[in-house]
Specification:
Elements: H1 3-6, E1 11-12, E2 18-23, H2 37-56, E3 59-65, E4 79-89, E5 93-104, E6 109-123, E7 135-136, H3 140-166
Parallel strand pairs: 1-7
Antiparallel strand pairs: 2-4, 3-6, 4-5, 5-6
C-alpha cells in the first residue's frame, strides 16, 4: 500500500446515496408506449456513476453491470425513481447498487421495476486508476449489502478467470 492509499479516509454509505427522478416521455418509449430497456439501462448507469463519483470524488468509468431484469412495464407519463449508493469499495473499484421504482403520480402507487449492481473504476484525468476510500456501512441493511458485494466480487473474478482459461 502506498502513502496515498493509507491516507484515504473511509466514507459512510449515506455520503454516496443519490436519488434521480425521470418522467417517462414518448421519446423514451417503444411503439407500445412502454419504456425502452436501453433507456432504463442508461439511467441506471448514470445513477450508479453519480454514487460512485460522490464516494470516490474522482472520475469513474463503468467496468461492469450485473444481471438485469425488468420486472414491471413502465408507461409514458410514469415517474421513474432511481436510488443508488456505493455498497463496497475495493482498491480502485466500487460496487454500486441501483434500485429502480416506477411511480404513477396520479394514483400514488409505487412498484419495483429493477435492481442492478454496477462496478465502477476510479480514474484520474489521464485515465489512470486511482485508489478509492473504504466504505463504512452503518445500518444492518448496509452491512448486508457490504458483505454481499464481497461475494459478488469473488463470483465476478472467478467468472473472469474461467473465461481467460477457456480462451487459451
Amino acid at each position: 500500500m502506498n502513502q496515498e492509499e493509507t491516507t484515504l479516509v473511509p466514507r459512510l454509505v449515506r455520503e454516496s446515496q443519490s436519488e434521480a427522478t425521470q418522467l417517462v416521455l414518448p421519446n423514451d418509449t417503444n411503439t407500445l408506449g412502454a419504456l425502452l430497456g436501453g433507456r432504463l439501462m442508461h439511467w441506471i448507469d448514470l445513477a450508479g456513476a453519480l454514487a460512485a463519483h460522490r464516494h470516490a470524488r474522482a472520475f469513474v468509468v463503468t467496468a461492469s453491470i450485473d444481471h438485469l431484469d425488468f420486472l414491471v412495464p413502465v408507461q409514458v407519463g410514469d415517474v421513474v425513481i432511481l436510488c443508488s449508493s456505493v455498497n463496497r469499495a475495493f482498491h480502485t473499484s466500487m460496487e454500486t447498487g441501483v434500485k429502480v421504482w416506477v411511480e404513477n403520480y396520479m394514483s400514488g402507487s409505487r412498484r419495483h421495476v429493477s435492481s442492478a449492481y454496477l462496478t465502477f473504476v476510479a480514474i484520474d484525468r489521464y485515465g489512470r486508476r486511482v485508489p478509492v476510500p473504504p466504505v463504512t456501512p452503518e445500518t444492518p441493511e448496509e452491512k448486508r449489502r457490504f458483505e454481499d458485494a464481497g461475494r459478488r466480487r469473488e463470483q465476478r473474478q472467478a467468472e473472469a478467470a474461467r473465461k481467460r482459461t477457456a480462451g487459451k
